[in-house]
Amino acid sequence: MTDHLRTDLSNSRFEEVDFSGSRFRNVYFQDTVIRGAWLQRVEIDGHLDGVTVNGVDVGPLIEAELDRRDPDRTLLRPTDAEGFRRAWEVVVRRWDAAVQRARALPEDLLHERVDDEWSFIETLRHLVLATDAWVLRAVLGDPAPYHPLGLVHTEMPADTPAVPRDTGARPSLDEILAVRTQRMATVARVLHELTDEQLDEMTQPVLEPGYPTSESFPVRRCLSTVVKEEWLHREYAERDLAHLERQSA
After folding, report:
1. For residue range 41-93, what is the model confidence (pLDDT) as tens digits?
2. 142, exposed or middle or buried, with CB in 10 Å at 0-12, 13-18, 19+?
3. Which value, in Å, is the radius of gyration of the alpha carbons in the chain?
4. Which of 16, 83, 174, 187 is the most exposed, fewest CB within 10 Å of its CB?
């Protein structure tokens, strides 16, 4: 198997290429055309915007089906302050259920990666970092919000200053949940005080180095980022919990 890591293959042309058994992770296919493809036993997980398959824009069809399967998803697209509060209630409820599933497993499995994705505890660590970045830093203006157990996303440039990078940390479930409880309480407080007018305001840039960059952001964008991160990573975590449950059984 040949590995192509952090390789720029943009504007490439592939003809008579066999990708059987290949894995693509964190790849970008903007303005890409694939013709004459044979897709069989293919799993695709990602953001779909203007994706046409055999002349059909499949994005809206998939979104509609996902909403049908899980009506809670419709609450994850808030437009006003009250909608953000309802969305956060859903996030908390669904994560509570996921944590209860995790507690039923041996804790060693919660440090285990499935298909090289983040472990359950690594996922919780990343969500701490997401809250630190987009709520404590961007919205609340804290110049040094980062908890040392926070875990950055793998695509973050190595020279990004100030953010924690202890990728080898192995906190217990209770240790990382204690941090999560504090962070989620902060988000709940921000949303409790949120008004519709504040959603369209711009944050004050934090001048100290860190992530996100020292600039202004719409408050709506910051809070939407946290809500989406919470929802998507819970979905990934539950997918992998199902695998770990089968393994444990």
Report:
1. 998 888 889 999 999 999 999 999 999 999 999 999 999 999 999 999 999 99
2. middle
3. 20
4. 16
Q: What is the distance between the alpha carbons of residues 165 and 158, in angstroms, rounded to a whole number? A: 9
Q: Write the pLDDT tens digit of every residue in 198-225.
A: 999 999 999 999 999 999 999 999 999 9
Give Cα 49 to chain centroid, integer Å. Answer: 18
CB distance 245 to 106 below 8 Å: no
Q: Helix, strand, coil: what percent of the chain each, to 5?
A: 50, 0, 50
Kindly give the interhelix angle for 219-248 and 120-131, rounded to the nearest 10 degrees: 170
CB contact at 8 A, 98 and 177: no
Contact status, residue 146 vs residue 163, Cβ threshold 8 Å:
yes
Structure tokens at 81: 């302050």
Beta-carbon contacts of 106 under 8 Å, excluding residues fewer than 6 positions away, are 248
Q: What percent of the chain has pLDDT over 90?
A: 76
Q: Which residue has the tokens 């996902």?
A: 66
pTM of the model: 0.89
Binned at pLDDT 50, 70 and 90, residue 24 comes out as: confident
- Domain topology for 72-248: Four Helix Bundle (Hemerythrin (Met), subunit A) (1.20.120)
Quick check: 218 and 200 in contact, CB under 8 A? yes
Residue 83: which of 74, 94, 96 has the closest Cα?
A: 74
